[in-house]
Amino acid sequence: MKKVLILGAGLVSRPMVRYLLEHEGIEVTVASRTVSKAEALIKGNSKGRAFPWTVDNDGALDMLVQWADVVVSLLPYTYHLKVAKACLKHRKHLVTTSYVKPEMQALDEEAKKKDLIFLNELGLDPGIDHMSAMKIIDDIKARGGKVTAFRSYCGALPAPEAADNPLRYKFGWSPKGVAMAGRNSARFMEDGKIIEVPGEELFLNHWPLEIEGVGEMEYYPNRDSIPYMKLYGIEDAKTMFRGTIRYPGWSRLWAVISRMGYLSDEEKSAGGTYRAFTASILGCNEDEIEKVLMDKYNAGEEEIEKLKWIGLLSDKKVEKDRISPLDLLVDLLWSKMQYKRGERDMDILLHKIEAEFPGGKKEKHTSLLVDFGIYGQETSIAQTVSLPAAIGVKMIFDGKISARGVMIPVAKEIYEPALKELEELGITFKEKVEAV
Fold this sequence. Notes:
The chain is of the alpha/beta class. It has 3 domains: 2-119, 3-Layer(aba) Sandwich (Rossmann fold); 128-252 and 340-378 and 427-435, Dihydrodipicolinate Reductase, domain 2 (2-Layer Sandwich); 267-323, no CATH class. Helices cover 36% and strands 25% of the residues. It has 16 helices and 18 strands. It has helices spanning 14-22, 35-42, 58-67, 80-90, 102-105, 108-113, 128-142, 175-181, 227-231, 250-260, 274-282, 289-297, 301-310, 325-336, 380-397, 412-424, and strands at 2-7, 26-32, 48-52, 70-73, 93-96, 117-119, 146-158, 186-190, 193-197, 207-211, 215-221, 239-246, 268-269, 322-323, 344-356, 362-374, 405-407, 430-435. The strands form 4 sheets. It has a 7-stranded parallel beta sheet with strand order 3-2-1-4-5-6-17, with helices on both faces. The chain has a 7-stranded mixed beta sheet with strand order 10-11-12-7-15-16-18. A two-stranded antiparallel ribbon has the order 8-9. Helix 15 (380-397) packs across helix 16 (412-424). The termini are far apart. The relative contact order is 0.16. The model has no long low-confidence stretch (mean pLDDT 96).
């Protein structure tokens, strides 16, 4: 029997557990702080087991990793390095759905020496975006062309009919992760010029985007796009951009939230109302908040009404004596922005790729994924994040990945069979090529 250890039993883990348990010859252990969540994923399957575990229990982590053949970390990215080092210690393969941080990349040589696969960025974004992009890029190259512009946009959102709150957003994955992503700086290239966007200005850089079958959305930059020029083998491109999709109005609100200081994780004294807490981080009196927001933070009436809806200007008492602005914000958002059973979520992934060929021929490629899921059954975000990782685990077991070390799924030996299986599972792209 092949053995998989899955660390974490959060919102996106169920399709992976189900997929792996359905395959013959695979045993699955799900380790989670809340063992009842792990038990719910296993559902009494004889090839599965649930194990109570917290990230500070190094001894148990060692024991669990030693048992497994492949380890999947669905933990917050801050814990991946600890898991990776345990995998090196016990010579086990590792799969994650998170971005490769420099600390993870630094383990590349040691992983290669120990004949290990550390396959990262194997979710939706990052993950399916890499694989679907490389399919187009490799086809262009095979026909003698070169990519001149690459633009990619992705978003995990409520379906239009479920986007029924003022922010038009609900949480399909970690609420804190969504908020923390608002602190990221960004970098991209436009017409040969590198654009740097500091974290505090992230949401000041947003633009409209029309999605076929969905309507008008907006997007803002997603982290550092420049390294993907080398990873995708398109160093000659003049434009390289990766963005995050949201419903219109998101960026204007979050620009205000960010500038207010509500993305800080430094604990502060509470002991009063939410309105008093907001006044304290703004450095003003409670009766001045709205004026300060308009004069200093460029908030309009729409943004102030949304802040009121969230509860940041409420006279309700904060229940904790000390809390960080970030955690206070996340607690309020989570209490109001959860999916109801039967509501649909929606993943959008759009590539726009321009290419040139010898003789002056030019092409514009469009590749669009719009995928829906249903809360209480299976969500789109859970399927699109965890199924690619599950397929990656199966490919490792089947010996279909020859490369070793720290990697992302840009090689044809990974993306071709993975995309084929995702298509069989109903995750498909609508592709179009136009002569320019």
